[in-house]
Amino acid sequence: MRYEYIAILALTVLLITNYDFLFRAKQVHHIAGQRAYRAFLVSVGAFFLADLLWGIFDSYHLYQAAYVDTMFFFLAMAATVIMWMLFVSKYTEDGSVASTILITAGGVFVVFQVCVVIVNCFFKTDFMFWMDDEGNYHAGIVRDISYIFQIVLFASTAVYAFLNGRKYERSKKKRHYAIASFGMAMVLMIVIQIFFPLVPLNSMGYLIGTCILHVHVLESERDDYRNRIEQALIREKIQQKELGEFKNLAYTDSLTQVKSKLAYLEDIAELDRQMKDGTAASFAVAVFDLNGLKKINDKYGHDAGDRAIIEASNLILRHFANSKVYRIGGDEFVSILTDGDYKSRRQLIEAFKSEIIKNAKAGKVVVSVGMSSYMPGADIAFSGIFERADRLMYEEKISLR
Question: What global pTM score does this model have?
Fold first, then answer.
Protein backbone atom coordinates (compact mmCIF):
# COMPACT_ATOMS: atom_id res chain seq x y z
CA MET A 1 0.00 0.00 0.00
CA ARG A 2 1.35 3.42 -0.92
CA TYR A 3 2.19 5.74 1.99
CA GLU A 4 -0.29 8.47 1.03
CA TYR A 5 -3.29 6.13 0.94
CA ILE A 6 -3.54 6.15 4.74
CA ALA A 7 -3.49 9.96 4.78
CA ILE A 8 -6.15 10.12 2.03
CA LEU A 9 -8.35 7.73 3.99
CA ALA A 10 -7.78 9.61 7.24
CA LEU A 11 -8.53 13.02 5.69
CA THR A 12 -11.68 11.67 3.99
CA VAL A 13 -13.00 10.11 7.21
CA LEU A 14 -12.22 13.32 9.13
CA LEU A 15 -14.17 15.48 6.67
CA ILE A 16 -17.14 13.10 6.48
CA THR A 17 -17.56 12.46 10.19
CA ASN A 18 -16.97 16.08 11.22
CA TYR A 19 -18.60 17.88 8.27
CA ASP A 20 -21.28 19.59 10.39
CA PHE A 21 -18.81 20.54 13.07
CA LEU A 22 -16.30 21.97 10.61
CA PHE A 23 -18.53 23.63 8.01
CA ARG A 24 -21.93 24.13 9.63
CA ALA A 25 -20.89 25.33 13.06
CA LYS A 26 -24.03 27.43 13.62
CA GLN A 27 -26.21 24.33 13.30
CA VAL A 28 -24.15 22.31 15.76
CA HIS A 29 -25.05 22.28 19.43
CA HIS A 30 -22.57 23.92 21.74
CA ILE A 31 -20.14 21.79 23.73
CA ALA A 32 -17.49 22.92 26.16
CA GLY A 33 -14.36 23.94 24.26
CA GLN A 34 -16.16 23.87 20.90
CA ARG A 35 -13.89 26.44 19.24
CA ALA A 36 -10.76 24.72 20.53
CA TYR A 37 -11.99 21.37 19.22
CA ARG A 38 -12.75 22.83 15.80
CA ALA A 39 -9.25 24.33 15.71
CA PHE A 40 -7.88 20.92 16.68
CA LEU A 41 -9.74 19.24 13.83
CA VAL A 42 -8.43 21.83 11.37
CA SER A 43 -4.87 21.24 12.56
CA VAL A 44 -5.36 17.47 12.24
CA GLY A 45 -6.65 18.00 8.69
CA ALA A 46 -3.52 20.05 7.90
CA PHE A 47 -1.39 17.25 9.36
CA PHE A 48 -3.14 14.66 7.17
CA LEU A 49 -2.59 16.87 4.14
CA ALA A 50 1.13 17.17 4.90
CA ASP A 51 1.36 13.38 5.27
CA LEU A 52 -0.54 12.90 2.02
CA LEU A 53 1.72 15.28 0.09
CA TRP A 54 4.84 13.66 1.51
CA GLY A 55 3.73 10.30 0.15
CA ILE A 56 3.06 11.79 -3.28
CA PHE A 57 6.35 13.71 -3.40
CA ASP A 58 8.30 10.64 -2.29
CA SER A 59 6.57 8.41 -4.85
CA TYR A 60 7.44 10.78 -7.68
CA HIS A 61 10.99 11.42 -6.37
CA LEU A 62 10.33 15.11 -5.74
CA TYR A 63 12.83 15.14 -2.93
CA GLN A 64 13.17 18.89 -2.49
CA ALA A 65 9.38 19.21 -2.22
CA ALA A 66 9.36 16.26 0.19
CA TYR A 67 11.96 18.03 2.36
CA VAL A 68 9.89 21.22 2.53
CA ASP A 69 6.75 19.19 3.20
CA THR A 70 8.51 17.40 6.07
CA MET A 71 9.06 20.77 7.74
CA PHE A 72 5.37 21.54 7.30
CA PHE A 73 4.61 18.06 8.68
CA PHE A 74 6.44 18.74 11.95
CA LEU A 75 4.91 22.20 12.30
CA ALA A 76 1.40 20.80 11.70
CA MET A 77 2.19 18.15 14.30
CA ALA A 78 3.05 20.88 16.80
CA ALA A 79 -0.24 22.66 15.99
CA THR A 80 -2.25 19.49 16.64
CA VAL A 81 -0.56 19.02 20.00
CA ILE A 82 -1.20 22.53 21.31
CA MET A 83 -4.78 22.53 19.95
CA TRP A 84 -5.37 19.20 21.68
CA MET A 85 -4.04 20.54 24.98
CA LEU A 86 -6.27 23.61 24.68
CA PHE A 87 -9.34 21.51 23.90
CA VAL A 88 -8.79 19.15 26.83
CA SER A 89 -8.38 22.12 29.16
CA LYS A 90 -11.49 23.90 27.81
CA TYR A 91 -13.63 20.76 27.73
CA THR A 92 -12.91 19.77 31.31
CA GLU A 93 -13.63 23.37 32.41
CA ASP A 94 -11.40 22.60 35.36
CA GLY A 95 -9.31 25.76 35.55
CA SER A 96 -6.86 23.99 37.86
CA VAL A 97 -3.12 24.37 38.06
CA ALA A 98 -2.76 21.04 36.22
CA SER A 99 -4.79 22.44 33.30
CA THR A 100 -2.57 25.52 33.14
CA ILE A 101 0.57 23.38 33.24
CA LEU A 102 -0.68 21.26 30.34
CA ILE A 103 -1.34 24.31 28.16
CA THR A 104 2.04 25.80 29.08
CA ALA A 105 3.79 22.53 28.26
CA GLY A 106 1.99 22.45 24.92
CA GLY A 107 3.18 25.99 24.21
CA VAL A 108 6.75 25.03 25.10
CA PHE A 109 6.53 22.09 22.69
CA VAL A 110 5.37 24.38 19.87
CA VAL A 111 8.30 26.75 20.47
CA PHE A 112 10.68 23.80 20.61
CA GLN A 113 9.33 22.30 17.40
CA VAL A 114 9.47 25.58 15.49
CA CYS A 115 13.03 26.23 16.64
CA VAL A 116 14.39 22.80 15.68
CA VAL A 117 12.68 22.93 12.28
CA ILE A 118 14.23 26.34 11.59
CA VAL A 119 17.65 25.15 12.73
CA ASN A 120 17.35 21.99 10.66
CA CYS A 121 16.35 24.02 7.60
CA PHE A 122 18.63 27.02 7.62
CA PHE A 123 21.73 25.51 9.14
CA LYS A 124 21.47 22.29 7.12
CA THR A 125 22.16 20.17 10.19
CA ASP A 126 21.19 16.54 10.34
CA PHE A 127 20.06 16.39 13.92
CA MET A 128 16.27 16.24 13.22
CA PHE A 129 15.84 14.77 9.71
CA TRP A 130 17.62 14.84 6.37
CA MET A 131 17.50 13.45 2.86
CA ASP A 132 20.53 11.62 1.46
CA ASP A 133 21.74 11.95 -2.13
CA GLU A 134 19.29 9.28 -3.28
CA GLY A 135 16.36 11.05 -1.64
CA ASN A 136 15.96 8.62 1.24
CA TYR A 137 14.51 10.05 4.44
CA HIS A 138 16.55 9.70 7.65
CA ALA A 139 15.46 10.52 11.21
CA GLY A 140 17.75 12.24 13.68
CA ILE A 141 17.95 12.16 17.45
CA VAL A 142 16.04 15.45 17.90
CA ARG A 143 13.13 14.02 15.93
CA ASP A 144 12.99 11.21 18.52
CA ILE A 145 13.17 13.76 21.34
CA SER A 146 10.23 15.58 19.71
CA TYR A 147 8.23 12.36 19.68
CA ILE A 148 9.12 11.59 23.29
CA PHE A 149 7.98 15.10 24.22
CA GLN A 150 4.64 14.35 22.51
CA ILE A 151 4.35 11.00 24.28
CA VAL A 152 4.69 12.75 27.63
CA LEU A 153 2.12 15.40 26.66
CA PHE A 154 -0.50 12.95 25.32
CA ALA A 155 0.00 10.63 28.29
CA SER A 156 -0.43 13.62 30.63
CA THR A 157 -3.71 14.65 29.00
CA ALA A 158 -4.90 11.04 29.16
CA VAL A 159 -4.22 10.85 32.91
CA TYR A 160 -5.66 14.33 33.46
CA ALA A 161 -8.90 13.55 31.56
CA PHE A 162 -9.25 10.19 33.31
CA LEU A 163 -8.83 11.63 36.79
CA ASN A 164 -11.04 14.62 36.01
CA GLY A 165 -13.78 12.38 34.59
CA ARG A 166 -14.15 10.30 37.74
CA LYS A 167 -16.11 13.06 39.49
CA TYR A 168 -18.88 13.17 36.87
CA GLU A 169 -21.95 11.04 36.24
CA ARG A 170 -22.08 8.27 33.69
CA SER A 171 -22.41 10.06 30.32
CA LYS A 172 -19.94 12.84 31.08
CA LYS A 173 -17.54 10.37 32.69
CA LYS A 174 -17.69 8.27 29.52
CA ARG A 175 -16.76 11.31 27.41
CA HIS A 176 -13.77 12.10 29.60
CA TYR A 177 -12.63 8.50 29.38
CA ALA A 178 -12.92 8.70 25.57
CA ILE A 179 -10.61 11.74 25.64
CA ALA A 180 -8.19 9.75 27.79
CA SER A 181 -8.40 6.88 25.26
CA PHE A 182 -7.46 9.27 22.47
CA GLY A 183 -4.35 10.29 24.41
CA MET A 184 -3.31 6.70 25.01
CA ALA A 185 -3.94 5.76 21.36
CA MET A 186 -1.61 8.56 20.30
CA VAL A 187 1.01 7.45 22.82
CA LEU A 188 0.96 3.92 21.38
CA MET A 189 1.18 5.08 17.76
CA ILE A 190 3.97 7.59 18.44
CA VAL A 191 6.04 4.97 20.29
CA ILE A 192 5.79 2.68 17.25
CA GLN A 193 6.40 5.64 14.91
CA ILE A 194 9.80 6.24 16.52
CA PHE A 195 10.97 2.83 15.31
CA PHE A 196 9.18 2.88 11.94
CA PRO A 197 9.62 6.39 10.52
CA LEU A 198 8.36 5.50 7.03
CA VAL A 199 4.98 4.16 8.19
CA PRO A 200 2.21 6.79 8.65
CA LEU A 201 1.45 5.75 12.22
CA ASN A 202 0.80 9.30 13.41
CA SER A 203 -1.99 9.63 10.87
CA MET A 204 -3.36 6.25 11.94
CA GLY A 205 -3.37 7.43 15.53
CA TYR A 206 -5.23 10.63 14.70
CA LEU A 207 -7.65 8.69 12.48
CA ILE A 208 -8.49 6.26 15.27
CA GLY A 209 -8.53 8.99 17.90
CA THR A 210 -10.84 11.39 16.05
CA CYS A 211 -13.24 8.51 15.35
CA ILE A 212 -13.28 7.70 19.08
CA LEU A 213 -13.98 11.34 19.86
CA HIS A 214 -16.71 11.59 17.23
CA VAL A 215 -18.58 8.54 18.51
CA HIS A 216 -18.05 8.86 22.25
CA VAL A 217 -17.77 12.62 22.72
CA LEU A 218 -19.54 14.51 19.92
CA GLU A 219 -22.38 12.01 19.43
CA SER A 220 -22.75 11.63 23.19
CA GLU A 221 -22.87 15.42 23.58
CA ARG A 222 -25.42 15.61 20.76
CA ASP A 223 -27.59 12.95 22.44
CA ASP A 224 -27.40 14.77 25.77
CA TYR A 225 -28.21 18.05 24.03
CA ARG A 226 -31.20 16.45 22.31
CA ASN A 227 -32.36 14.99 25.62
CA ARG A 228 -32.03 18.38 27.30
CA ILE A 229 -34.08 19.99 24.53
CA GLU A 230 -36.73 17.26 24.79
CA GLN A 231 -36.87 17.64 28.58
CA ALA A 232 -37.11 21.42 28.19
CA LEU A 233 -39.98 21.02 25.71
CA ILE A 234 -41.76 18.62 28.07
CA ARG A 235 -41.31 21.08 30.94
CA GLU A 236 -42.57 23.90 28.73
CA LYS A 237 -45.66 21.90 27.75
CA ILE A 238 -46.34 21.10 31.40
CA GLN A 239 -45.87 24.75 32.33
CA GLN A 240 -48.14 25.87 29.50
CA LYS A 241 -50.77 23.36 30.60
CA GLU A 242 -50.49 24.51 34.21
CA LEU A 243 -50.59 28.14 33.10
CA GLY A 244 -53.70 27.38 31.05
CA GLU A 245 -55.29 25.72 34.05
CA PHE A 246 -54.38 28.66 36.29
CA LYS A 247 -55.69 31.12 33.73
CA ASN A 248 -58.88 29.10 33.41
CA LEU A 249 -59.27 29.18 37.19
CA ALA A 250 -58.54 32.89 37.29
CA TYR A 251 -60.94 33.66 34.44
CA THR A 252 -63.79 31.47 35.74
CA ASP A 253 -66.05 32.34 38.65
CA SER A 254 -65.76 29.46 41.10
CA LEU A 255 -69.42 29.57 42.21
CA THR A 256 -71.32 30.01 38.95
CA GLN A 257 -68.70 28.89 36.36
CA VAL A 258 -69.38 31.99 34.23
CA LYS A 259 -66.46 34.32 33.44
CA SER A 260 -64.80 36.06 36.38
CA LYS A 261 -64.30 39.74 37.10
CA LEU A 262 -60.65 39.44 36.01
CA ALA A 263 -61.77 38.22 32.58
CA TYR A 264 -64.31 41.04 32.49
CA LEU A 265 -61.70 43.71 33.25
CA GLU A 266 -59.34 42.38 30.56
CA ASP A 267 -62.11 42.22 27.95
CA ILE A 268 -63.41 45.73 28.60
CA ALA A 269 -59.82 47.04 28.46
CA GLU A 270 -59.58 45.54 24.97
CA LEU A 271 -62.94 47.07 24.02
CA ASP A 272 -61.72 50.47 25.29
CA ARG A 273 -58.66 50.15 23.07
CA GLN A 274 -60.78 49.22 20.05
CA MET A 275 -63.17 52.12 20.64
CA LYS A 276 -60.23 54.49 20.92
CA ASP A 277 -58.72 53.13 17.68
CA GLY A 278 -62.07 53.15 15.90
CA THR A 279 -61.90 49.40 15.24
CA ALA A 280 -64.63 48.23 17.63
CA ALA A 281 -67.42 46.14 16.10
CA SER A 282 -71.06 46.57 17.11
CA PHE A 283 -71.90 45.29 20.58
CA ALA A 284 -74.32 45.80 23.43
CA VAL A 285 -73.94 45.56 27.20
CA ALA A 286 -76.55 43.91 29.42
CA VAL A 287 -76.29 44.46 33.17
CA PHE A 288 -78.08 42.05 35.56
CA ASP A 289 -78.76 42.17 39.28
CA LEU A 290 -80.37 39.48 41.45
CA ASN A 291 -83.30 40.93 43.36
CA GLY A 292 -83.65 40.30 47.08
CA LEU A 293 -80.35 38.49 47.73
CA LYS A 294 -79.93 40.13 51.15
CA LYS A 295 -83.37 38.94 52.23
CA ILE A 296 -82.59 35.41 51.07
CA ASN A 297 -79.31 35.40 52.99
CA ASP A 298 -80.90 36.80 56.12
CA LYS A 299 -83.91 34.48 56.07
CA TYR A 300 -82.51 31.22 54.68
CA GLY A 301 -78.71 31.54 55.05
CA HIS A 302 -75.82 32.05 52.68
CA ASP A 303 -76.08 28.59 51.16
CA ALA A 304 -79.55 29.47 49.93
CA GLY A 305 -78.14 32.79 48.70
CA ASP A 306 -75.44 30.93 46.74
CA ARG A 307 -78.09 28.67 45.20
CA ALA A 308 -80.06 31.73 44.15
CA ILE A 309 -76.94 33.25 42.53
CA ILE A 310 -76.29 30.00 40.65
CA GLU A 311 -79.92 29.85 39.50
CA ALA A 312 -79.68 33.47 38.34
CA SER A 313 -76.51 32.77 36.33
CA ASN A 314 -78.11 29.70 34.73
CA LEU A 315 -81.12 31.81 33.79
CA ILE A 316 -78.89 34.41 32.13
CA LEU A 317 -76.88 31.73 30.32
CA ARG A 318 -80.03 30.14 28.89
CA HIS A 319 -81.00 33.38 27.20
CA PHE A 320 -77.52 34.64 26.29
CA ALA A 321 -75.84 31.36 25.49
CA ASN A 322 -73.85 32.82 22.57
CA SER A 323 -72.54 35.82 24.51
CA LYS A 324 -69.91 36.25 27.20
CA VAL A 325 -71.43 36.36 30.69
CA TYR A 326 -69.41 37.65 33.66
CA ARG A 327 -70.04 37.73 37.39
CA ILE A 328 -68.60 41.07 38.52
CA GLY A 329 -69.97 41.20 42.06
CA GLY A 330 -71.91 39.20 44.63
CA ASP A 331 -75.22 39.36 42.75
CA GLU A 332 -74.15 41.39 39.69
CA PHE A 333 -73.67 39.99 36.20
CA VAL A 334 -72.75 41.51 32.85
CA SER A 335 -73.14 40.12 29.35
CA ILE A 336 -71.47 41.57 26.25
CA LEU A 337 -73.62 40.81 23.20
CA THR A 338 -71.93 40.51 19.80
CA ASP A 339 -72.68 39.03 16.38
CA GLY A 340 -75.98 37.10 16.34
CA ASP A 341 -76.97 37.97 19.90
CA TYR A 342 -76.33 41.65 19.17
CA LYS A 343 -78.61 41.53 16.12
CA SER A 344 -81.41 39.89 18.10
CA ARG A 345 -80.67 41.76 21.33
CA ARG A 346 -84.15 43.26 21.71
CA GLN A 347 -85.87 39.91 21.28
CA LEU A 348 -83.46 38.33 23.78
CA ILE A 349 -84.09 41.05 26.35
CA GLU A 350 -87.87 40.82 25.90
CA ALA A 351 -87.77 37.03 26.25
CA PHE A 352 -85.65 37.36 29.37
CA LYS A 353 -87.96 39.96 30.94
CA SER A 354 -90.97 37.82 30.09
CA GLU A 355 -89.51 34.88 32.02
CA ILE A 356 -88.59 37.14 34.93
CA ILE A 357 -92.21 38.35 35.20
CA LYS A 358 -93.34 34.73 35.35
CA ASN A 359 -90.72 33.99 37.99
CA ALA A 360 -91.88 36.96 40.08
CA LYS A 361 -95.45 35.67 40.04
CA ALA A 362 -94.30 32.14 40.87
CA GLY A 363 -91.97 33.21 43.68
CA LYS A 364 -88.83 32.12 41.85
CA VAL A 365 -85.55 33.91 41.24
CA VAL A 366 -86.01 37.44 39.92
CA VAL A 367 -83.19 39.17 37.99
CA SER A 368 -83.35 42.77 36.83
CA VAL A 369 -81.74 43.68 33.50
CA GLY A 370 -80.80 46.80 31.61
CA MET A 371 -79.21 46.96 28.18
CA SER A 372 -77.43 49.63 26.14
CA SER A 373 -75.70 49.49 22.74
CA TYR A 374 -72.37 50.92 21.67
CA MET A 375 -72.83 54.12 19.64
CA PRO A 376 -69.77 54.78 17.43
CA GLY A 377 -68.70 58.42 17.58
CA ALA A 378 -70.66 59.14 20.75
CA ASP A 379 -69.17 56.45 23.01
CA ILE A 380 -65.46 56.75 23.66
CA ALA A 381 -65.22 54.35 26.61
CA PHE A 382 -66.94 51.21 27.82
CA SER A 383 -67.85 52.85 31.11
CA GLY A 384 -70.38 55.16 29.41
CA ILE A 385 -72.26 52.23 27.86
CA PHE A 386 -72.16 50.32 31.15
CA GLU A 387 -73.58 53.30 33.07
CA ARG A 388 -76.55 53.59 30.69
CA ALA A 389 -77.28 49.88 30.98
CA ASP A 390 -76.82 49.98 34.76
CA ARG A 391 -79.27 52.89 35.07
CA LEU A 392 -81.86 51.01 33.02
CA MET A 393 -81.32 47.94 35.17
CA TYR A 394 -82.11 49.89 38.35
CA GLU A 395 -85.23 51.31 36.77
CA GLU A 396 -86.25 47.73 35.95
CA LYS A 397 -85.48 46.66 39.52
CA ILE A 398 -87.77 49.37 40.92
CA SER A 399 -90.59 48.41 38.56
CA LEU A 400 -90.28 44.71 39.55
CA ARG A 401 -90.68 45.59 43.21
Answer: 0.62
